[in-house]
Amino acid sequence: MSIKREIGYLCRGEHGDPYRVLGQHIINNNIIIRAFMPEAKEAWIIKETHEGDQLFQMQKVYKVGFFTYTEKTDKPFPYRIKIITHYDEHREFHDPYAFHTDFVTDFDHHLIGEGVHYRLYEKLGAHLYEVDGVKGVHFAVWAPNATRVSVIGDFNRWDGRRHPMKKNIGSGIWTLFIPNLSEGVIYKYEIKTNFNSYLEQKADPFAFYCELRPKTASIVYSLKEKHQWHDDQWLKKRSKTNWHEKAISIYEVHLGSWIRKSEAENDVYSYREIADKLIPYVKDLGFTHIELLPVSEHPLDASWGYQVTGYFAPTSRFGSPSDFMYFVDKCHENDIGVIIDWVPAHFPKDGHGLRFFDGTALYEHEDPRKGEHKEWGTLVFNYGRNEVRNFLIANALFWLNYYHIDGLRVDAVASMLYLDYSRKEGEWVPNQYGGNENLEAIAFIKLFNEIVHRDFPGILTIAEESTSWPSVSKPTYLGGLGFSMKWNMGWMHDTLEYFTKDPIFRKYHTYDLTFSLIYAFTENFILSFSHDEVVYGKKSLLNKMPGDLWKKFANLRLLLGLMYAHPGKKLNFMGFEYGQWDEWCFFRSLDWHLLEYEHHQRMLQYTKDLNQLYKNEKSLYEVDFHHSGFEWIDFHDHDNSIISFIRKAKDFSNYLIFIFNLTPVPREGYIIGVPRGGFYREIFNSDSEIYFGSNIGNAGGIMANDVPSHGRPYSLRTILPPLGMLVFKPS
After folding, report:
1. Which residues are part of the catalytic machinery?
2. Overall pTM surpassing 0.70 (yes/no)
3. Which one in 116, 152, 227, 668 has a CA-CA gap of 20 to 30 Å to 605?
């Protein structure tokens, strides 16, 4: 192709390798410098020599702004360009096309093509870089089907003709080093594809920082040396911790609505500000972890963060990436783990996001029967594509690496596993064997779990999986999906179904409470009362409870008591701890004024004491995932709606006795069998007056009778409080 023709392609924004035309070239023992600067009226080369700078005017050979300079020499030299724009501005800069870098190496391109470049975020995106003593920013983006990709921003008046990138044909990665740019520069990629006249401005999929919505551009930001971490001891301890045998009590938080500066729109606390409020509160209540609804950048507040456009950027709603590092570090300094919701199941259709990224279905499936969730109005990742799997796994590792995150709760796993998820007949495509399993997604999930656990021992991966898919939380070498744990959605549904019923009818529904023990040890379960259960007309936990004010609070205490007694780790959404009346609303604060009232103060104390009991007693967490840690005493007393059971530690001599009276009728002389004799201390009573209860109990404890009951050699003759939980411990 002639140089004239290539210049024509370049000026029209259709050239895939601008370095062939622009920059400094040796031709017939001459140095020729070419530059395309549509904004320039006049231009000069500033030749950098030992004697000082020398100025030479460039020739404008095309009206559109194409300039050249020729010199009789075959030795390249360093130079800058000076221009006077059409707006009579004087500007001076280094020519991007005078610099050739190996920032993205041949080996990087190979690993990207194979889908195994798990530190991909260190190569793609925008990175501060220095070439030949000149500082600037190196940009790299994957867009294999584009005709032209350019970096655009304020620095070039958002003109896509100005900074076209170079394409690596093998990997589809486009790169460009732009000198003289620095941190804080706002940018996007302009992507052009000829065959469908596609021209779109896209945010950087690997941006570390984004503009505050409704703006959508990316921001050049270096994560290095932004925060001095103080959590070495936490990370060292975490790497050696078997969380299956530890207490895990998770406080789920939506940062934008836990507490706000005011109820004015967008008047929220920053990551740093909320750290100083949230962390002491969570620590005082005795929770072990905070779980955050997605903190990745997202355009729509109402999505709560579950429709992500910036997978590598903490949302700028609450400050900068370094502010978020501060938040996590402060949690670790206070012995609180941080779990974030991670969303590899789908992404939104916003024009600046991943959708149709290079004019083709790049990250998603082209066929909407495989690539779209109509229920959510989102697109499904193409898990069968090497580069897409690589993008997601690298993203998971990124959060664990740069932000020291302790766990990833993977959202909507069921939607990934099933090809017919939320689809009618004819709206989905079977797999190669005719089944509804998404084989590519399954392979991705297994690989994700293997790699993150390999690289970061001690972290948690948690599945929100709402079906009966087998072995979700079993290792992949045993045929499982490899998650550390799984939310127990069945337990949540059945338990809430039971507790919302008037106690007079509960005797007909005892099975709702006991059924979960049939499958309780088939997975490593987390019992969850999440945000999903207190929104969209479902009411708050307190307001779900039947009865008058006293009964509502008694039922809520009983519900939470049963949760903490039942095998499985624990998760509760913010507001439950003091009895929030209204259901959750994402655009305003929780109702903190309720703590001015005694009922809610006492409910808060109950939550604190329940967490303390949970963490103090090994029998409540050491054997959560094996039947040997649980033993029924009696689940047949349907008429009285009373159940009782034993929780045991690894040392079976360390156990607790639980009795639940699920009606408002006190019971005197109620007998249950126990394994051995001696004195049983009443270590917890949900009906205590300090919790706004009626203070019915057993005066601190009971001596076991040498009378067999329930197949055990000894028994306790108890007084059961109304709507109450009793916990006994043998002395």
Report:
1. 411, 464
2. yes
3. 668
